[in-house]
Amino acid sequence: MSRNIIAILRGITPPEAVDIAGRLIDAGITRIEVPLNSPDPLQSIASMVEAHGDKALFGAGTVLQPEQVADVAAAGGRLIVSPDCHVPVIEATKRLNMLSYPGVMTPSEAFTAWRAGADGLKFFPASLIGPAGLKAYRAVLPKDLPCYAVGGAGPDNFAEWRAAGADGFGIGTALYKPGESPGSISQKAEKIVKSYDEAMT
Known about the structure:
Structural class: alpha/beta
Largest sheet: 9 strands, parallel
Shape: globular
Subunit structure: Homotrimer.
EC number: 4.1.2.21
Enzyme class: lyase
Strand content: 15-25%
Strand order of the largest sheet: 5-4-3-2-1-9-8-7-6
GO molecular function: 2-dehydro-3-deoxy-6-phosphogalactonate aldolase activity
CATH class: Alpha Beta
CATH superfamily: Aldolase class I
CATH architecture: Alpha-Beta Barrel
Low-confidence stretches: none
Number of domains: 1
Radius of gyration: 16 Å
Family: Belongs to the KHG/KDPG aldolase family.
Number of strands: 9
Order of helices and strands: EHEHEHEHEEHEHEHEH
């Protein structure tokens, strides 16, 4: 089962990347991003792709410039996530046949991203938009355009976001914090997957 959960591993380092990715995959999370403001992110992505590329989709977050898209592709990443709606990044991503999830907060940004070819939208920060805001957006956005709630969505409110029209979620510090033990990450991942499955079925 492929779940619409993107694990955001901000701060992860190459020595721990393969183990943690494996634990997330075992728990049922198969979409994983390494923000580019992490230590040596491209090496972490390359290592995870080499070890687990047949079982999960890997890529980068906090992608701000189109030049960075090519770097992620060279590392084997296929997923590009941004905190903002920057059309050149979306276009560069689609030219390389990668998946584009730009960050949006307003209807204008959402439609700009969609028209530029985004595969889905990252509503960020979700805590400021709220489920009521997303519900209003969903009334006018294309029905088949995936919408992810990121920054304020988690296992305690998946169901509320789902009712508002969220198709998926990006999970950061609720799943991973630098220095956290792999066992703790496994436990949190299992809880998140269980809550997701309950909310989305």
